[in-house]
Write the structure tokens for this entry.
Amino acid sequence: MGKIVFAGAMSHVLDPDYYQRACGDEGRQKVTACMTEIARMGERFSATRADALIVVADDHLNAFSFNAVPALCVRIGRTVQRMKQDRAEAFDAVLEHMPDRYPLHEDLANQILERGLASGFDLAMSWEAPVDHAFLSPVNTMHGTRPIPPLVPIWVNCFVAPQPTPKRCFDFGRHLAGVVGASPWNVGIIATGGLSHFPELSLPRVGETDTVFDRRLIHWMERGEHEPLQELTVDELHKTGEHEFLNWMVLLGAVAPARAQVRYFGELRRINLAAVEWSLP
Amino acid sequence: MEPAVSRYEVNSLLYRLKKDPEFRARFDRDARAALADADLTEAEREAFVAHDMRRINELGGYLHLVMSIPGLAAH
């Protein structure tokens, strides 16, 4: 009987130099504090000796161009490679010091896919898509020099309208919990991105956040109040810069009714940084 | 919600500029010539020629692309 043994969610550009350039000394200090908490979360995850780590994150128009943009996509195969970008700028440069290739948990990924298709989730699959900073920055920050267990990367389309609804993402998380529960494996799950930044994906609004909305989301997560979270709309998330909260909705479905514990929340003018962990039974 | 389909030409061009170094080099040498065959409106074409990422974003270019094209990125 398998079990979800760890659940966490966190911001996913984890690079002091990036935030030094974007926000000065305050940016470096806050992302370093956030990374310290994420590293501690990683130590607790490693202590579970989990068989696999599901990583729910979004593509920044790197893995999927415009020939196809899947709403939900499961990475299958035996290994995954990190995205390569010549003359990488901004968040892409975060990847450059990271290992090139990571093992996948092929059996768990296949079960998520096959049982999903059998139960009404028309999931996309990919053998080739590379993973960008949204996956690898948290995974490497959590693990440091410790071995990284086999991953199951799952993409949620957070940016290219029309996106899946928060309710749909939550329901997909319930599906993940069902697959893990019926499996022989102990599994960790992380969701990445956020919190509020880049409202309406508008360049002139880079530098704005919606802290009030962030605190509302956190309030609900801390209390395990998942009904109002499922009633959120994609339009609300777009206007408040919470696009990547769709990833978190998948995790919430997987761990419900567990309650969140905030490990770090720090306001910056560019983004509100967060690290959250769930207390699992 | 903003329309998704009409953004195709602008975004596929942004994607190509990010991922195709040879095309990016041609664009850097002569943007107007590099875009000669692109199916763009005049407003879109002028925004690319001017390297005006803010305008390209207004015209539907996805933020994460306009922020990450080597040598052209807006920060």
